[in-house]
Amino acid sequence: MTVQFRHIMLMIKDVPAAANFYSSGLGLEITKLSPNMAELDANGTKIIMHGVEESPKTGGSPILSFHVDNLVETIAKLESLGGQLEGRIREPSFGKVAAVRSPEGHLLSLLQPATDK
After folding, report:
1. Which residue, 30, 58, 67, 98, is the most exposed by fewest CB within 10 angstroms?
2. What are the mean pLDDT values of the chain's consecutive 10-residue runs (117 residues total)?
3. Domain ranges of the chain
């Protein structure tokens, strides 16, 4: 049996607003958009957003992980679009790390990788 990962799907109440959050906040390209469905290109990985009347009450939120060039700038941009920083910015040996909750409640893991000096 062959298994191939195809995309991540998020169940979203306001698809156009959520697509704008990821596009404007992280620079992801919106490849398809309608009031009830959006597809974004995350550097070759598809994020599909499907409209729902209510957010799912069971199951956990997927965590979307992104590497960013400037963590503080990215957090500020996402907060201006309705995101909320979860906890604090941490600085382990491999870079700066933070978590941001989207307006729809999905968790984004952000990493600014350490640079060799």
Report:
1. 58
2. 75 93 97 96 92 68 88 96 96 94 91 84
3. 7-113
